[in-house]
Amino acid sequence: MAVTKDTIIGDVVMENQDIAPILMNSGLHCLGCVMATGETIEEACMVHGLDADELVNSINEFLASKEA
Question: In whole angstroms, what is the distance from residue 63 CA to residue 55 CA?
């Protein structure tokens, strides 16, 4: 799964629950929030004042390391 800024947070976590700590450590503590099921990474980052590109890169680096 390649993650982009348009990826829904709930989809990312359902695909790989090990991504949850990355999201939490970045400042997205809303994983249990109803909005997380339909909100994109970019939307959540905008609301929380975070860099969506940086978060997407972190997630994709994590996923790539798991595939190696």
Answer: 12
